[in-house]
Write a structure and sequence with these properties.
The protein is an alpha/beta fold and 795 residues long. The protein has 25 helices and 28 strands.
Length: 795
Amino acid sequence: MAYHEAPHKDPRKMGIGRSIAVLTSGGDAQGMNAAVRATVRVGIYTGAKVYFVHEGYQGLVDGGDNIKLATWESVSMMLQLGGTVIGSARCMDFKERWGRLKAACNLVKLGITNLCVIGGDGSLTGANQFRTEWSELLLDLTKEGKITADEAKRSSHLNIVGMVGSIDNDFCGTDMTIGTDSALHRIIEVVDAITTTAQSHQRAFILEVMGRHCGYLALVTALACGADWVFIPEMPPEENWEQHLCKRLITQRERGSRLNVIILAEGAQDRHQKPITCDQVRNLVSKKLGFDTRATILGHVQRGGTPSAFDRILGSRMGVEAVMALLEATPETPACVVSLSGNMAVRLPLMECVQVTKDVTKAMAEGRFEDAVNLRGKSFQHNWNTYKMLAHVNPPDVKVSNCSILSSNINIAIINVGAPCAGMNAAVRAAVRVGIIQGHQMLAVYDGFDGLVNGQIEPITWSQVSGWTGQGGSNLGTKRHLPGKNIEEISLNIAKFNIHSLIIVGGFEAYLGGLELITAREKYEELCIPMVVIPATVSNNVPGSDFSIGADTALNTITTTCDRIKQSAAGTKRRVFIIETMGGYCGYLATMAGLSSGADAAYIYEEPFHIHDLELNVEHLIEKMKTSVKRGLILRNSNANDNYTTQFLYNLYSEEGKGTFDCRMNILGHMQQGGTPTPFDRNFGTKMGSKSVLWVTDKLKECYRHGRIFANTPDSACVLGMKKRSLLFQPLTSLKDDTDFEHRIPKTQWWMRLRPILKILAKYDAIEIDTSEVAAMEHIIKKTGEIKGGKMLNK
């Protein structure tokens, strides 16, 4: 994201005298309500009037009661609802000029000059056309006497900002569209359920998922469930795919698999653009192989249900950014779309994104399938390459490189360290299988560093990790113990088992353990091997990475629990719940769960709070009980404050709220570490595991000298982490300066910038949005018209 220094602006005054309309158009998507809620509340916070446009563009054309003034309370209890509460419709009238004339007249009469559109590329293209024609429409309306010259002058310019709501994730320019993650949740729930019955009966299942022009849902589902085959429109199978598919399924059965899973996007096609259907694949498998085969078309179940934590936070962040973009826009600013790149909000020219999206469809129609995959962006490319590597290589047939390193018997050990979390097994599975593909022998170390000390080390095979992607916890076993005084025993076992490289999957203990091992290199030469730490912890507190495997699953667990608690509070009225989350001293879970569940406050260690702050929070809740929203939700991170404990907060709120509200307390505990991994954690773990082994393979080549491996440079022991937009390997030693070892957290944490959003959405006054870095417009098409990149830029 490009940034420029901006003068300090008071957000509470930016919207004074301005009016914003928000509408949802086209197909619905989970998370749209979060975007609507954030747009309304941040708009009101800035001093602007905000209007709902009901029923999409049809409501804009029809006007009247379809365009209503929004209030703070009118968007309460929306976060956990799927679909869009303000309605959506596919409007033919708006495609006609007379329809757009009526829409313009309705906006002018209400003094609305800022329009926020949440929808797909068709909806956003329509918004841009509306903006382009605006001056002409006003001229015609003035001539017809429908508006006065003064009204036309006051509404001389229309600002447009788009947010992409589409479960297909088919819009180029953003990593994830609103609704995609929730759709993946629905799909994976079905896949997990089907897997159990398929194993019982040794069946093959074909699942058709949505995605008429985009295979993202199918591709990520295939990665997340370890499918045997996936059909996507961007990359049709090779000629004679039927023969290859059957061979693949037979091979899986010969390896001991009791089931086969095939994922098919609804827009799947062959190289001659002939559709590939569920029935076609089912008939092929059942008739040619004789397998008991079933087909399931998921349909609109993928659109429904409760939005995931990711979609709620994404919608909220996009809504805030959309309001700021509208209020900062000038007549010269092109219509923009608010997008997500890594963990960063970016603004992109709307029509450039639409153009690249159309270019993908054109590339597919012309048979340029490699171009279609590339235009989808780096994220899509990485997913496709990872899937191909894990699913389409037959281990016994792998050709080992002529490189002396690979042809010698390289042993890579993989170990889980720290507390267990969902997604660890996905990382181990990917690492094991990619290692085997690379020609290495993979070794499993059981029970953390204790296993490395006691020699609990065994080879682990391709089939042993089958089905691990969807399993929670740690199948290898994990402990918090550090190498410490057992370094000598560890070095002896590294020599005994001839370990050439070590992959450590875990939380802060994995990071500390890695540091202890490389510090001991001076004394123990056996430790001079490449090492990589893969962050995996619900606390999300490992230096060098913005995200850790397992944090998303924990966040969804907390969010679901908060939904149920809020529902209870809504029934009893005048009740405040105080909930304690995990995370140690790291406030990530409490903050993000606060955003996704609509909490009134989230107490964390990183943002010190005092008795005056607690007093303000109590007064805020007392005022809230006077409105129609008679409930409260307070989150507290487990180590937020030594003295202001969860029990203390409960006692304080109970005492001060007497006669106004009563309190309840919940400590969520270890339920946050359990459960099956979310699609994000499965996919993230798979990519991290794969990338770590490929890095180790290259590092082994660099460190191989005179018939032995010797790695003692800082960059031979790294943390693999996501930083802003990229997966990066950073030397463990280089991260020490950014680490608060006493409290086991990084000194700088990106999500702290989101805390003002949480407070603004909870209706706190005098909250400043950090405007030291303002998102500047980026471009994804060069001036020559050549495509520069699709979804993830500069990754």
